[in-house]
Amino acid sequence: MTPSELQTLTGASDACMADLEVFALRLAEANAVMNLVGPDTLPDIWNRHYWDSAQLLALEPAARTWADLGAGAGFPGVVLAILLKETPGAHVWLIDSLGKRCRFLEQVVDELRLPATVINGRAEAQALKVDVVTARAVAAMDKLLGYAQPYLQRGARGLFLKGEKAELEVAEARRVWQFDCDLSVSRSDPRGRIVSVRSLRRVRSR
Question: Where do the annotations place S-adenosyl-L-methionine binding (predicted)?
């Protein structure tokens, strides 16, 4: 995918596209000294990381507040913050437990003046009320739902980017959790799935 193709798909402004270009540079620089993403994925950043993240906006176009759990390299959270930068009232919380990843995210947020807040802490310990809680490549669904539970209980919709084993992960998670769930095919990779979750509660042990 080219930048112009991504711009067409997302309707991003030229200013947002410029921010995405800067983010790509900062990610490449940081990735040379710490493991944020697989180096072999950077040449395909516009599809593999940017479009993969941006596609979530079409699923919740009215959402203004997002929490990205295990934000890591900034996918999907930083991409969402860039694309929502010109939207009044939009804000993204980037939550990660590792200090060095948070320092990288803070540098990007500050440089690009994004509507985002970086939180260095455990995802499940935050008392945030948001429209959507999201995550990518953080944990299997059973554990991920535990991290997301406080947000879902406060009314958030969960939109989780998963790989080709998404159906199996959902089935295994149902041993621990009761939840309403829909799976849609990822627009960036037909092998991937976006798992939409609402009304989560823990299964009572017998």
Answer: 70, 75, 123-124, 136
Determine the structural domain holding residue 43 and report its residue range: 3-133+140-157
Is 136 labelled as part of a ligand binding site? yes
Residue 204 above 80 pLDDT?
Answer: no
Token pair 């009215």: residue? 62
75 is known to lie in a ligand binding site: yes
In a domain, 201, yes or no: no
Q: What pLDDT score does 206 carry?
A: 47
Question: Does residue 3 have a cis peptide bond before it, meaning omega lies within 30 degrees of 0?
Answer: no
CA nearest 48: which of 86, 75, 12?
75
What is the tens place of the pLDDT at every residue in 155-199? 999 999 999 999 999 999 999 999 999 999 999 999 999 999 998
User: Is 179 marked as a binding-site residue?
Assistant: no
* Residue 26 marked as a ligand binder: no
